[in-house]
Each structure stands twice: as C-alpha cells, then as structure tokens.
Amino acid sequence: MNHRPAVEQLNSCWASLDELFDSLDDEQWSTPSLCPDWTVRGVLVHLGAIEHMLSGEPPGSMSEALPFDKAGEWMREVAELSDDDVLTRYRDVIAVRDEELAAMSDDDFDLPCMTPVGPGTYGRFMDVRVFDFWVHEQDIRVPLGMPGHETGPAAATAIHEIEMSLGYIIGRKVGLPDGTSITIDLTGPVDRVFHVVVDGRAGQVAALESPDVTLRTDSTTFALLACGRIDPQESIDDGRVTWDGDAEWGERAARNLAFTM
Predict the structure, then answer these.
(1) Distance, CA of 121 to CA of 134 (rounded, Å)
(2) Domains of the chain, with CATH numbers?
(3) pTM of the model
(4) What one-character-per-residue DSSP string does 56-96 give?
(5) pLDDT (tens digit, 9 = 90+) per residue, 58-79?
C-alpha cells in the first residue's frame, strides 16, 4: 500500500503550523485554545511531545504499547523554556521526524503498531497523526481569529477519520431510533455527503432518497463539533448548523455529534 499521501499530508500540516507559529506574539502564545486547559503554547508542546515520542522508534517496536513516558519527559524538559526556545525545540523534533518518515518504505508503514485508536499499523498511526495535527491547528486558529488550512488532503483525511465513527455517533451519541435515517451534508470547504441508516445498528449507506433528517454544516464546524471543541448552541444560533425533516431529531443530531476530545 502506498503510504506517501499520509507523509505528504503531515508535511502540509507541519508547514501550515510552522508558518502560523512563526507569526505569533507573546499574547497570542498564551491565548486559550479550543482544547480545554491548553493555551496555544500548550498545543505546540503536546504536538512536539508526541512526535518526540515517535522519533527513533522503529515502526515494528511499538506493536504492544506506545512509549508515552518519552512524551512526558519532553514536556518536562521544555516547561521552563521561553516561547521562542520551545518553538525551536519543536522544529528540531519535526525535522527529525521528517527525515525518519522520508526514509521509511511502504513495508515499514505496514508493520503492526499500537495506535491511539487501538492495534493497527504504523501507516494507520500516521493517518491519526494527520487528524491530530489538523484538528489541533484549528484549535489554535479559531480562537486567534486566523482561519486557514480548512481544505486540502489533510483536512479531508481529518473528516474521513470522523466518518469512520459515524455509526457510533449516530447510533449511540445521537441515538437515532431503529428504522430511521439521516443525511449529513457538509457544504465545504471539504465537500462530503454522508448517509446513515439505523437498521438494528447504525451504518453508512451509499445513498438515501428520503432521509428522515438532513443536517447541514460546513466541514470545519462539523469537525469541531465531532471533537467536542465548540458549543453546539452557538453553531445553531449563528446558522452554521441547520436541519430539515424531523425537527426533534435534527436538533438532537446537531447537539450530540461529539464523540472524542
């Protein structure tokens, strides 16, 4: 399997974030992000710590567990550094990871690896890293009022990660009853239409002629709601999320998309 797209998407996330970080002043570094308890600096430290955890670890060496202690050590090492010095350390880690990923073969990416979503492959873990970087970038951009990187392959991969959990989201979090269906229409920047039917359990289908509910929103709002980052009420009030069909289940879907944090 060709895993170069994941590497290219990570590179795009790194480049976009690096440009963003390079533009920040002292006040912006201390701005609360959308991720609870983390400032903008805290998000950078988290991202750098996980990449440090992965650096120097051959893909096949992490099939049973991930060395999270390495991440914690790195976070402690940079805790007292200035913002500029933390950014330098982060860039050093990203440079190492860039070299490591460039040197890996497709066979390396296919090796078994523990991931944040359970046992998988190293390539699967890199897809999750794309999701993590992209969502955390939006965690920073939204409160700073500096929108960007809402479209492109990395954004599409992040939306796909959420798509893979739609059965759980609609069946368990929203609780759509048996025999009903919903269409989720993402109006851009990532254009997607998802159809879910509850037939014993909730699952995606290729098409629906007459869904009971149609929920519409933009892809970034959808991602932030699914990741529990923003208040559904605000998105409803300002019209970023709308629905038609069954009003009760439309509103319930709008309020209950969150499946992760």
Answers:
(1) 20
(2) 4-147 (1.20.120.450), 165-255 (3.30.1050.10)
(3) 0.97
(4) T--GGGGSS---HHHHHHHHHHHTTS-HHHHHHHHHHHHHH
(5) 999 999 999 999 999 999 999 9
